[in-house]
Write a structure and sequence with these properties.
The complex is a heterodimer of chains A (303) and B (359). With 303 residues, chain A is mainly alpha-helical. Chain A is built from 12 helices and no strands. Chain B has 359 residues and is an alpha/beta fold. Chain B has 15 helices and 14 strands. Chain B has helices spanning 41-48, 70-76, 92-102, 107-120, 136-148, 166-181, 194-200, 218-222, 241-251, 266-269, 280-293, 307-313, 324-327, 335-352, 355-358, and strands at 4-12, 17-26, 30-34, 56-61, 64-65, 77-80, 154-158, 186-191, 203-208, 211-217, 226-232, 256-257, 272-277, 297-304. A 6-stranded mixed beta sheet of chain B has the order 6-7-8-3-9-10, with helices on both faces. In chain B, helix 9 crosses helix 11 (280-293). The longest helix of chain B has 18 residues, at 335-352. The radius of gyration of chain B is 25 Å and the shape is globular. The N and C termini of chain B lie far apart (63 Å). The chains are: A mainly alpha (303), B alpha/beta (359). The A-B interface holds A 22-26, 28-33, 35-36, 39-40, 43, 52-54, 57, 116-117, 120-122, 124-132, 302-303 and B 42, 45-46, 49, 51-52, 71-72, 74-75, 77-79, 81, 83-90, 94, 98-99, 101-106, 109, 113, 116, 120, 130, 146, 150-151, 182-184.
Chain lengths: 303, 359
């Protein structure tokens, strides 16, 4: 090609010339802080299911999602086939039964969401942009809670649709579904707070995973054991109060007291209304507290 | 118009004073911020981004107050941190698009500008691969791209040449120059190497211990005196051509030194003479002297004084502590050339007799 054709002035005729159009300024609208926060939320929510990330990171969340929905599917199939009048499991108890799956999901995804930014020091890049600490924490918190809500509400939806297909009582089922949704919403908020707070303390993802699993299982095992002993010794009143010391039993206590469910405590002991009320308060305080501590955690993380 | 104005800006931490009543005006163009590690460069950037409150004083960036309008400032400036800040498992494109959206760019614009910006910083096909596999040079380009993607009016580049090899360093400095000349974006670039900034910057601000040492244009620093780098061959009658020329020039009253100030490649520096050029006549004088000695002139090039030399002569030599080890050998040198010069003069006097015959 003769050099003249490379000249932008005369290159108009040649179709196969790549023009160096130089630097172009952006004069479109800048959508600001609220938009950036929403973008971070949607990116984190998608990331919690491996969307927009490598194929490898899609495997675990998708698998856990399937494991979470599978029992619901089976129950519905059985219920429809045998023409049951009621679902084998109440909406509010489903998540408690599958708490191990939820815990595993949280342990895998909460560190992914926050430890990565700390480990690779991406956090300063966020804070050198219009968003502020509160936007970052709110977006991450909401995304994690949203991801957990999707994980826990999807099987309830399957149960609900199945129940309606099996021609169970519409009012009963709708009420149960609504109570179930409230209970998993509370659970999502509580778990997201605990999981993110623990993950945000370490830039190492492995530690985060282990710590989240430990924080969910060890208190649960301890509380269940002590509850068992209390029940055997006839101290039923204590059982409900013991539930305050682990995240899962907290939610269980709340749903048994306020959402028409039955708690999965030893010997079918149910918490007293007072214990349930305190459990609700503790849950809300724990959610607010983990948010406040996360805010504190990121106070020093800028630059 | 000024881009950055600080007015007795101070930042005190419980144990240290990071910035101590810094008052400086920085105009558009490329400005170098020079100081040793811990001189307060990063603290200054942090304050200018509105991310930490000043203990005292005030500052404006692009006419916006850092204390009250931090958000508006951060929308209009870009920031490239000194440390690594890239997640290894995403591609450069995905990462920069995300960062563009974090700056408030709508999705389509974010993608378009990411493609543009990555092309401008010199990343092509590799931008679709995960960042984990990139070289340090490529990572620095991604970091620069994320600072430029939202088309800021000003960018803060914190040690952009850190960890780069000489070629990568030159490319990065060229890129920084282009950010201003072609993109029209003002640049504040920090470094602890003065020599690096003299080629790139229009203006240099030197701080030490949080205090302003000097702020002036690069021309002021470097065009006080020009110097000529001269390299000659050795001949049979002048086995040490460099020394012979030095002696000849010294007799004509021209200031000559051998030491290469700053960090030039070590091997050849012994054969290079730096001649202080007082005007046009110095060029002729060097040419005539070289010809008179019958030496081959390998090169004669004009070079500006290094900024570091300017500081060395000032009382403010402490400004660039990291460079001090490199410059210390230069200090005792003025005596050394004197002795070698007299030695070679005698040597040359003996040799002189045979020279015309050979010629």
């Amino acid at each position: 090609m003769p050099p003249e054709t490379r000249n932008p002035a005369t290159a108009g005729a040649a179709q196969d010339v790549i023009h160096d159009i130089g630097y172009r300024h952006f004069d479109g609208p800048r959508l600001g802080r609220g938009y950036a926060r929403r973008s971070l939320f949607s990116q984190s929510l998608r990331g919690a299911y491996g969307l927009g990330r490598s194929t490898k990171s899609k495997v675990l969340p998708m698998l856990l999602f399937a494991v979470m929905c599978l029992p619901a599917g089976i129950m519905v199939a059985v219920a429809v086939f045998t023409k049951m009048n009621d679902l084998p499991v109440a909406y509010t108890r489903y998540a408690i039964f599958l708490q191990a799956v939820i815990g595993l999901y949280l342990a895998a995804q909460a560190p992914q969401s926050v430890s990565r930014d700390l480990r690779f020091k991406t956090v300063p890049l966020y804070f050198s942009r219009p968003i502020e600490r509160v936007d970052y924490v709110v977006a991450k918190f909401a995304a994690m809670a949203g991801a957990l809500f999707i994980l826990t509400a999807a099987p309830l939806l399957i149960l609900y649709i199945g129940a309606l297909l099996a021609k169970m009582d519409f009012v009963d089922q709708t009420k149960g579904m609504a109570q179930g949704l409230v209970s998993v919403a509370l659970l999502s908020l509580l778990f997201a707070g605990v999981g993110l707070l623990i993950s945000a303390l370490t830039p190492r993802r492995g530690f985060g995973v282990a710590a989240v699993i430990a924080a969910l299982t060890i208190p649960y095992a301890a509380v269940s054991a002590v509850q068992g002993i209390a029940a055997v010794q006839g101290q039923e009143g204590v059982v409900g109060w013991l539930a305050l010391f682990s995240p899962v039993t907290l939610i269980d206590s709340v749903q048994a007291t306020f959402l028409g469910g039955t708690a999965s405590f030893p010997d079918e002991v149910q918490p007293s209304t007072a214990a349930g009320l305190v459990a609700l308060l503790v849950t809300l305080v724990a959610v607010a507290g983990s948010y406040a501590l996360l805010m504190r955690r990121y106070r020093k993380a800028g630059l | 118009m000024t881009v950055i104005v600080t007015e007795s800006l101070s930042k005190r931490y419980p144990r240290v004073t990071a910035l101590d009543r810094l008052t400086v005006d920085i105009g558009p163009g490329v400005t170098g911020l020079v100081g040793a590690n811990g001189a307060g460069k990063s603290t200054l950037i942090k304050l200018l981004l509105g991310l930490a409150p000043a203990s005292e004083g005030s500052a404006t960036v692009l006419g916006l107050d850092v204390a009250r309008e931090g958000g508006a400032i951060r929308e209009r400036v870009g920031y490239m941190p000194e440390h690594d800040c890239l997640p290894p498992d995403v591609s450069a494109t995905e990462f920069v698009v995300h960062m563009a959206r974090m700056s408030g760019l709508p999705p389509t614009a974010a993608r378009e500008r990411t493609a543009d910006t990555l092309r401008h910083v010199g990343l092509y096909e590799e931008r679709y691969r995960p960042i984990g596999g990139y070289s340090t040079g490529m990572k620095q380009r991604v970091k620069l791209a994320q600072a430029l993607v939202h088309d800021p009016q000003l960018v803060f580049l914190d040690e952009p040449t850190n960890g780069l090899d000489p070629v990568g360093r030159d490319e990065m400095l060229g890129l920084i120059r282009r950010v201003h000349t072609e993109f029209g974006i003002s640049v504040l670039v920090t470094s602890h190497l003065l020599g690096e900034l003299e080629r790139t910057c229009d203006h240099v601000v030197v701080i030490d211990g949080g205090k302003l040492l000097r702020s002036s244009s690069t021309d002021d620093f470097t065009q006080l005196t020009a110097s000529l780098a001269v390299e000659v061959t050795d001949t049979d009658e002048h086995p040490d051509g460099t020394a012979s020329l030095r002696a000849a020039l010294a007799r004509t009253g021209v200031a000559v030194t051998t030491a290469a100030p700053g960090s030039e490649s070590g091997a050849s520096t012994a054969h290079v003479l730096y001649v202080e050029a007082t005007g046009e006549e110095t060029y002729d004088l060097v040419r005539d002297t070289v010809a008179g000695l019958g030496l081959g002139l390998v090169r004669m090039e004009q070079r500006r004084h290094r900024i570091s030399e300017v500081f060395q002569s000032d009382d403010t030599a402490t400004a660039d502590a990291p460079e001090a080890p490199g410059r210390q050998p230069a200090a005792p040198r003025p005596t050394a050339p004197a002795t070698t010069a007299s030695a070679t003069t005698a040597h040359r006097a003996i040799k002189d007799g045979g020279a015309p015959d050979a010629a």
